[in-house]
Fold these 2 entries.
Entry 1:
Amino acid sequence: STPLIAILAGDGIGPEVTAEARRVLDALGLDLTFEEALVGGAAYRASGHPLPAATLDLARRADAILFGAVGDPACDTLERALRPEQAILGLRKELRTFANLRPARIFEGLEDASTLKPEVARAIDLVIVRELNGDVYFGEKGRRTNAAGLREGHDLMRYDEDEVRRIARVGFETAAKRRGKLCSVDKANVLETSQLWRDVVIEVAADYPTVELTHMYVDNAAMQLVRNPGAFDTIVTGNLFGDILSDQASMCVGSIGMLPSASMDAGGKGLYEPIHGSAPDIAGQGKANPCAAILSAAMMLRHSLGQAAAADRVEAAVAAALRAGVRTPDLGGDASTRAMGDAVLAAL
Ligand code: NAI
Ligand code: MG
């Protein structure tokens, strides 16, 4: 049957960039059904909740979700459970999307927008596979007054072997489809969790003889990511380390407006979103770069819809539009969101 795509555009620049991604998907002429729903601040204003039951129901029914961004300064004074950002956290939790794929590569001609030296930036073509449902974010948390009478807080870092095994497999599968190099990032010199992580990753490696596995401590990985990012192919890491390293990697490729992501569940369903937020500072001005959203749609085609050739076409069209010099202000140009989308469509 025709795949159902949930379009959750959200707040701020979310609807602006998602509209361009939708135009690109439409232009491919594939057999897809789209259904839209409110999420984030937009949903809160309409229904009193950032993730209404109807939106969650659509997300559950859909074969894939194209997400924009949530976040609205007008909602900043709301209690935490009603904040727009709770919608994306709720979706990840409800959909059990445990594998976050964040590719970072530099498009031809964008070296000058990177914070790195052009010759270093030019070599970046990596994917960070980040575990999304475990680690210190989901371990037991608490506050207390300790024996010395001091206020104390704690967050338990924990993983069980099944959680490590399933993300390790995603790491190996990803590497096997790329340049065959997997770097597992941990802190096994100090953390018990990381020693288990390393043991399990090594066990899983036996099933992937063609992938070359290396291990790196996270502090060194942070350093190598800016020193010589071209040396990385696929990185697999836990939730906390992956959060930090992937934001770091994003700046190496020119603009946060260029980076897509996928959050996958065990069955191949995914939530696809640009890594940026709702950018209230530029919302409604037609200045947002839609490339991250368009590239997220390409990831959706590849990872959830079995349309690898269409995904390749979209990525090539983005590259061609950029090569032709069309750039939004974050990349140093003056093209509008719509003009950037037009250029991608023209290249298609
Ligand atoms: P942000 O990513 O929205 O913006 C950071 C900076 O990058 C801003 O100067 C913005 O103008 C710029 N920027 C972001 N995307 C861009 C694009 N496509 N084109 C050109 N420039 C772009 O992060 P910020 O400002 O920390 O957060 C704004 C709101 O978004 C907050 O409410 C935050 O909680 C939310 N947020 C939501 C996320 C999500 O929905 N997954 C992720 C990150 C933040
Ligand atoms: Mg982050």
Entry 2:
Amino acid sequence: IKEDLALPVGTTLDRFIMRKQEDFPFATGELSQLLRDIALAAKIVNRAINHAGLTDIGGAYGKQNVQGEDQQKLDVVANIRFIRALRNGGEVAAIISEEEEGIIQTGNMKGKYIVAIDPLDGSSNIDVNVSIGTIFSIYRRTSELGTEGNLEDCLQKGTEQVAAGYIIYGSSTMLVYTTGNGVNGFTYESSLGEFFLSHPNITIPKKGEIYSVNEGSFNHFPEGVQQYIELCRVRNYSARYIGSLVADFHRNLMKGGIYLYPITQKSPLGKLRLLYECNALAFIVEQAGGKASDGQRRILEIEPYELHQRCQLYIGSTDMVEEVETLLVARG
Ligand code: AHG
Ligand code: MN
Ligand code: MN
Ligand code: MN
């Protein structure tokens, strides 16, 4: 009986979202509905991922996306699932996705929101059973209700996000999100089909001892970054790099650490995408007490000029990010 009573019977994600909505007497519940739509798609994608080795859903899709990456079948499936859930939900006017070149019009012209999404993050890890994720940002549209979402709606600065989050399909599946009032994490109980509040008020340690970077590209990093990595080695920090941004970020958020993706020869502007990778995690890390920078600027203040814009990313514990920034200023 002890065993059974230990099962989660806490706050469900739905209940949590509803309670939060009660804090805003003039809120109409549309953002809450939108978050629930994302959670629903996350459950469906989670199921597909869990079956990946059993069904014909693994492997390459045979096409490239707009950034010239080989799409995996699950990239495409996740993209369809999230778009469908947001279209059916009705709250979103337009979507930007890693997997689609242009703005996706949902047909919900009365929808107040714009979503930017990386449907499946960590593509290269799908077929080897390593943690992958989904990243999303939510903005209020600036265009008039009753029209289609336009480029201006989609190119808002990260500071304008009304909510952002990620799902990590890891040893357990979690949804972590913020609406600008702290960060909360929910763990999925698959037999009940519910996310339960498991990590209330997440904060990131100010200092950390983990650094996460693809060190294979060391020789191409800016000198300041090379110097920082050398410092990490001297200090005996732990090197941890999964190769799924969501998973690397999540670990460092929990334990304290820094994730670095500098410019390289292969990616002269950085690899990660501002609108649907960096901004969401930057909003979350700041809400948890950490920092996100492109080496010089706060990520959230970068002015976007195109949908698939890339930038450098240094994100995690405040002291660590500031140290890299200082070295980059001194060394370039
Ligand atoms: P995606 O799978 O959505 O295209 O993102 C890939 C990103 C990110 O998940 C990860 O941190 C990074 O690529 C890894 O890049 P490297 O293989 O160059 O280290
Ligand atoms: Mn990709
Ligand atoms: Mn990604
Ligand atoms: Mn992706």
